[in-house]
């Protein structure tokens, strides 16, 4: 009993409303697939962006990446559990799976959404400014992170969050 | 021509990312022996001076965690299962929350949590494990260190 209580005092408080860690990975799989489509659409002619800004803003790759940016903002603002993919996971996938072995703090994956937003948003802004390969580069960087998260469970944004919290940049 | 390049680029991106992921996963939880001789004393690991850290007589498993770390609770269960928290016990487990001790993260170059340092009875760092430890590898090392200590005690 004493061992138990000693252990309790050492253990950091993981909130009871922790999320199923498979939820963010499910969402990342969809995001990674969509980002591949952005790259496929953007690659041909990426070195010579259209001259007119409105032409650049109406390229299919630009529109698709805009959609992804909106979804990242959603995740960063409301958290991954209230993100459309999170809701889909909770309603459709989760009931078919065994309960998770471990619950996860929702804050690191939410921060990872913010990193995704910054990377893809920057790509979008640079593409609008007419920078060659901006859509491809932004989508490729975000793809690497989303793919590693979904396939390997390595969440780079979450690791970054831990490093920033630890170095007191974030509180 | 553009189509070929596009698919080649996408294929290369997926391939390189997969290789990177596989390499990362292969290292996760591995017991990597630390050849540089670092010594750690109980004082180095004491977070709260009211309850100073105690080293095990054979082995101390020093776990570095953070408040939000998802895999730390499972690692804590594994390590505290291998250890015994009584004073003067052979194997002890110390869990340190780096949120309160960022200096230790810098000192021991901890980039991910959980990271576990395996110390022998003299406080020398024998191994470092990034990610949730692989139990069989860790148990092997613990047995090796305990056998060394036993042999040394016998030869004295």
TrEMBL record, chain B:
Pfam families for the chain: Thioredoxin
Keywords annotated in UniProt: Membrane, Transmembrane, Transmembrane helix
Sequence intervals crossing the membrane: 6-24
Every copy of the Thioredoxin domain together lies at 40-147
Nucleus as UniProt keyword: no
Q: Which domain of life is it from?
A: Bacteria
Q: Tell me which CDD domains the record gives.
A: TRX_family (cd02947)
Provide the protein name: Thioredoxin domain-containing protein
Query: What is the organism of origin for this protein?
Result: Agreia bicolorata
Upper lineage:
Bacteria, Bacillati, Actinomycetota, Actinomycetes, Micrococcales
């Amino acid at each position: 009993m004493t061992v138990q209580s000693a252990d309790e005092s050492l253990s950091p408080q993981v909130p009871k409303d922790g999320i199923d860690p498979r939820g963010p990975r499910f969402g990342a799989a969809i995001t990674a697939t969509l980002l591949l489509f952005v790259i496929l659409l953007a690659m041909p002619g990426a070195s010579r962006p259209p001259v007119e800004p409105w032409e650049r803003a109406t390229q299919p790759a630009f529109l698709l990446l805009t959609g992804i940016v909106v979804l990242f903002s959603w995740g960063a603002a409301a958290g991954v559990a209230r993100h459309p993919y999170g809701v889909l996971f909770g309603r459709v996938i989760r009931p078919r799976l065994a309960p998770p072995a471990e619950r996860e703090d929702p804050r690191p994956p939410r921060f990872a959404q913010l990193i995704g937003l910054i990377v893809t948003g920057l790509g979008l802004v640079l593409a609008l400014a007419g920078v060659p390969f901006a859509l491809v580069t932004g989508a490729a960087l975000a793809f690497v992170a989303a793919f590693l998260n979904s396939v390997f469970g390595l969440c780079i944004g979450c690791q970054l969050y831990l490093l920033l919290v630890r170095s007191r940049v974030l509180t | 021509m553009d189509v070929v390049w596009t698919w080649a680029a996408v294929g290369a991106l997926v391939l390189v990312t997969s290789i990177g992921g596989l390499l990362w996963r292969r290292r996760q939880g591995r017991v990597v022996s630390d050849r540089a001789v670092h010594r750690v004393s109980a004082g180095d690991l004491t977070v709260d001076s009211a309850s100073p850290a105690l080293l095990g007589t054979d082995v101390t498993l020093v776990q570095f965690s953070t408040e939000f770390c998802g895999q730390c609770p499972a690692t804590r269960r594994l390590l505290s299962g291998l250890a015994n928290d009584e004073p003067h016990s052979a194997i002890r487990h110390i869990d340190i929350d780096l949120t309160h001790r960022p200096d230790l993260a810098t000192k021991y170059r901890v980039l991910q949590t959980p990271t576990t340092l395996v110390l022998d009875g003299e406080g020398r760092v024998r191994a470092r494990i990034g990610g949730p430890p692989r139990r069989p590898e860790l148990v092997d090392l613990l047995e090796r260190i305990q056998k060394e200590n036993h042999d040394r005690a016998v030869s004295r």
